Amino acid sequence: MKVGRGELLTGRVLLLLLMTITILPFISIFTTALHPSGTVPNGLEWPSNPQWGNFIEAFNVANMTTLLASSIFIVIAVVPVSLIISTMAAFAIGLLRIPGSRMLLVLFVFGLTLPFGGIIVPLYYLERAIGIYNTRFAIVLPLIGLYMPFAVFWMRAHFVNMPTEMSEAARVDGATTWDLFWGIHLPLARAPIASLGILMSVWTWNQFLLALVLVEDPSQRTMAGALGAFQGHYATNVPLLSAGTLLILIPTLVIFLLFQRQIIAALLQGSVKG
Amino acid sequence: MYAVFVLLPFLMSVHYSFFSWNGIGPMTWVGLKNYMTVLEVPDLLETIINAFRLVVFFSFIPVGLGLVVASIIHRVATGKLGAVSRTVLFLPYIIPLVAAGIIWGWLLALPGLINQILNSVGLGVLTRAWLGDFDWALPAVGIIGIWVLLGFCTVLLLTGISKLDPALYESARIDGANWLTEFLSITVPLLRYELIVCFTVTVINALATFDIVYVATAGGPGNSTAVPGIEIYILAFTEQRIGLASALAVMLMILVLVIVLPIQRIGRETN
Questions:
Q1: Chain A residues in contact with B14 (beta carbon < 8 A)
Q2: A162 by DSSP, 3-state: which?
Q3: If you ran DSSP here, which 8-state letter would residue A175 be given?
Q4: pLDDT per position as a tens digit, B216-264
Q5: Which domains does chain B show, CATH number per domain?
Q6: Do A115 and B103 touch (CB under 8 A)?
Q7: Which residue in A has a C-alpha nearest to residue B151's C-alpha?
Q8: Hey, CA dihedral for A33, A34, A36, A39, is it positive or negative?
Q9: Chain B: residue nearest A137 by CA?
């Protein structure tokens, strides 16, 4: 494609400008984090005496090791279970077309647009009643449920596009439904399952509302939820708050930079299908 | 699982919304009174209006701007610069919204970067504590939304543009089309599907927003940035007015459905 030189230049300059604006907030909290704890620095100013120790202090006061463990526990408890249930459900709906499939789909469509805020109040009372309030399961169990509509739609989109001849041929060879699922369709569904897993991990890691309402103890929360508590305690100590925020962001940023292709692709497909 | 933790709470929400209840004492049947209250009390109605104001920032601006940026990237930065810019612009979308709220809470504070920039270009008179200003807090929250969602829209639209047949652009250029005509007569109409996805995602984000507002302003100053998500939280967990909170929750869920379904329908028809 031929593009004029002037346009090329203006376009690129605009783009660089936009990238700078996007990045600037991160740089601002980075320089702020290096100022002496408790002071109020300017928005963007390299400190005369960088306080790298702020990161260590934030690491300790934010209880980062416990937090990381808690978040990882929650992700590990949510994602595999959701993957198994949703894949089987989607297999039943999309390929086997069990009776009532249409009804189930309609129910799930409703769940797709449901704002979490809409059901948070009853969830709170429900969890108090069954005694899982203020444990990690208070986040895990509802999340598995809340992911179902999206996950089932996602996997169904894959199964629906599978040629039926394949299943029929296997049936003729005497395969049971279980063989069909386990031996043929599951291996073929590896790519969409992986993307779905990435998506749900990111969402879980970043989940805030459920953590805030359903778990009082910050050390039992997700990363995002704990960050909220951290902000509550250190709202006035801007350098320390910045250091803590950056620390909490680091795992997300590292994982994003490593798997950016897969993550971007998964998030985009996710929104297109959903 | 879905039934117990999604459908059951939904039905409970509807059920609660017809009662007056403080969470502990007896529940009193009040019929539709809670719904009337939401519509009659200006502060509650305001939260719904605020949600719509945020749609402008969370949805219209990121989608519109994203479209322009995507077509710029497509035209002038096909190589390495394009790849880097995708990564950079997408970054704000993957961090927790809470973090976005905290970062911008600091940028928009009195000694923060925004005021520093204004001062340095001689616009010192404009500086203020943006999130504490009655008139400016809502647009300031909106800016955070733009920052978060712009990259997502841009990258989504860019994948759409790259799928279009380059021959279309070639022939348009032979006919002497400039950037604007190309943009209006090829890019926009052919990207209808991606545009609708962008609108759906961002509108849901705007109406159901909670994290950013909770961290950045908690609904204040006064009621100027209160959105339904925040108000539900306050009503239910600080004021113990469960029935009223549930009525607002039900209205929010219906609102999202009523707005998103038609957008989706247009999408399906054009497909």
A1: none
A2: coil
A3: -
A4: 887 778 777 888 888 888 877 777 777 777 888 888 888 888 888 777 7
A5: 2-270 (1.10.3720.10)
A6: no
A7: A22
A8: negative
A9: B5
Cβ–Cβ under 8 Å, residues A129 and A91: no
Burial B202-225 (b: 16+ CB within 10 A, else e): bbbbbbbbbbbbbbbbebbbebbb
**Most B CBs within 10 Å, among A17, A87, A105, A121, to test the B interface:** A121
Beta bridge partners of B19: B29
- The C-alpha atoms of residue A85 and residue B187 are separated, in whole angstroms, by 40
Q: What is the CB-side half-sphere exposure of residue A29 using CA atoms within 13 A? A: 28
Residue B28 bridge partners (DSSP):
B20
Name the CATH superfamily, with its identifier, for domain A65-222+253-273: MetI-like (1.10.3720.10)
- Could you tell me if B245 lies within 8 Å of chain A, comparing CB atoms? yes
Q: Is the ipTM of this complex over 0.85?
A: no
A118 and B170: CB-CB below 8 Å? Answer: no
Domain ranges of chain A: 65-222+253-273
Please check whether residue A46 touches B, CB under 8 A. no
The answer to whether residues B22 and B240 touch, using CB atoms and an 8 Å cutoff, is yes
| pTM of the full structure | 0.83
Q: What phi and psi values does residue B108 have, to the nearest 5 degrees?
A: -90, 0
- How many other C-beta atoms lie within 10 A of the C-beta of residue A38? 11
A28 CA: distance to closest CA in chain B (Å): 7
- pLDDT tens, B119-173? 888 777 777 788 878 888 888 889 999 999 998 899 888 888 888 777 777 787 7
User: Amino acid identity of A31?
Assistant: T
Asked if A122 and B111 come within 8 Å (Cβ–Cβ), the reply is no
B250: exposed, middle or buried (C-beta count within 10 Å: 0-12, 13-18, 19+)? buried
